[in-house]
Amino acid sequence: MAEQVSRDPVDPRVTRSRRLILEAAVALLVERGFGAATVEAISARSGVAKTTIYRHWPDKEAVLRSAVESIVPTATAPDTGSVRGDLTHFAEDLARILTTPPTSALIPGLVAAAEHDTGLGRLLAEFTAGRRRPVHDAVARGVERGEISAGTDPEAVAELLLGPLFYRRLLSRMPVTAEMIERTVEAVECTLGGPSR
Amino acid sequence: MAEQVSRDPVDPRVTRSRRLILEAAVALLVERGFGAATVEAISARSGVAKTTIYRHWPDKEAVLRSAVESIVPTATAPDTGSVRGDLTHFAEDLARILTTPPTSALIPGLVAAAEHDTGLGRLLAEFTAGRRRPVHDAVARGVERGEISAGTDPEAVAELLLGPLFYRRLLSRMPVTAEMIERTVEAVECTLGGPSR
DNA sequence: TGTTTGTGCTACGCTACAGTAGCGTAGCAG
DNA sequence: CTGCTACGCTACTGTAGCGTAGCACAAACA
Questions:
Q1: What is the pLDDT of residue A194?
Q2: By C-alpha distance, which of B8, B194, B109 is closest to A34?
Q3: In Å, what is the separation between the CA of B160 and the C1' of C14?
Q4: I want to staple A193 with a disulfide (CB 3.0 to 4.6 A). Which of A26, A197, B13, B48 is the partner?
């Protein structure tokens, strides 16, 4: 919860400790995955005593959740004036997130951890839902503008656009190039049709 | 290596042990993920002594690799006469794999493990490459048939088709419905264009 | 300046797990 | 029937990691 952060004027030692701990946790998650993110490793890397970590979080899971939360990126969704422009911008944004640390390195582990950890599962669900929202908005604007059919399913659009990008990151492990993005956006647009459809 | 399997007429006790061990390992991987698939758990579940496990594999990683290998499904790719038919059949096949055990439950963990384990990374690469091959073949047949343009990039087609399906399984966790498959195939087809293109 | 509060440190106890050694037994094949 | 081989079992060693207790110290704060 964010209340804690803004409420009382906290001791600078506390903020420093928390910051160092989370930085180290993120670095470990990114570099060596969930398996290597142990409390002792975080302590060693951050220079903060293990006991101090337990003074701020009840257990390891809570630390890792905080670490993950601390780097969840927010999606941007500017109105570029056309559906194609919006989707392209969005895809480029996602591609950047998918290929640059820290988020990039975190996603595979998060996907797997979400399978058996409900807390992280919720986090992943929030992340992906947040990712789809800009697409919904872009579609809504397109409909309003008369550019595309009112019957367009925004979820379907999001899926067609996000799927191939995540596929590259997680499965085929090919680089996400500008050409690939353009091609994918084109494919999505192709299915949209005009307002008459 | 497969030589061992077919070479000598093996002692039935050996085949029995190996089978029980791998079955237990797969069950554990499927039900509770890579983290829970310990040698001791496999031993307890299979009823085979831990020492016997180490008589057949050098270490835990090797056991898990064998377990994963034992359930990698092979892709089917019948020629239905049209690109659309081929792709639909393929997508339905993949959807089944993505939603039914044991493969379904294994994929998230495999994706994550592949990130830091080169052995499993190779396995995943082989799996996904095997998945894409039928799409390549379908495209090739479509080109030969004059149904679609010779310039069609089969990798792009595979990506557009596989991406959304995997996205549902791994990220949005929505069920893969028949409508969704049809919609996705339609979207892919829409980008193909005719032979004139 | 004195008091409070957060930290570092050492030293724990506990559990889970990897991997091994040696012995006795049971099943297989000739 | 006999030798061979795989197996089960017990008992280890060693390590890694979680989470805690208590004390001394130092930084923040009033």
A1: 58
A2: B109
A3: 51
A4: A197
Residues from B in contact with A at Cβ < 8 Å = 32-35, 105, 108-109, 111-116, 124-125, 128, 132, 156, 159-160, 162-168, 170-173, 180, 183-184, 186-188, 190-191
Rounded (5°) CA angle B100-B102-B104:
55
pLDDT the model gives residue A105: 86
The parts of chain A modelled with pLDDT lower than 70 are: 1-9, 193-197
Residue B135: which residues within 8 A CB-CB, separation 6 or more? B87, B90, B154, B157, B158, B161, B162
Asked if A166 and B162 come within 8 Å (Cβ–Cβ), the reply is no
Mean pLDDT, consecutive 10-residue stretches, chain B (197 aa), reads 46 92 94 91 95 95 92 82 91 90 88 81 84 90 89 90 94 90 90 63
Q: How far apart are CA B75 and CA B93, in angstroms?
A: 8
Q: In the prediction, which pLDDT does B8 show?
A: 54
Whether the Cβ atoms of residue B89 and residue B78 lie closer than 8 Å to each other = yes
DSSP state of A169: I
Distance CA B21, CA B50 (A): 10
Nearest CA in chain B to A123: B171
> Is B60's CB less than 7 Å from nucleic acid strand C?
yes
B59 touches strand C (CB under 7 A): yes
Domain boundaries, given as residue ranges, for chain A: 9-69, 83-192
Dist CA B85 CA B62 (whole Å): 40
- B chain contacts of residue A105, beta-carbon cutoff 8 Å: 115
Say which CATH topology domain A83-192 has: Tetracycline Repressor; domain 2 (1.10.357)
User: Which CATH number applies to A9-69: 1.10.530.10, 1.20.140.10, 1.10.10.60, 3.40.50.1970?
Assistant: 1.10.10.60
Q: How much is the pLDDT for A195?
A: 57
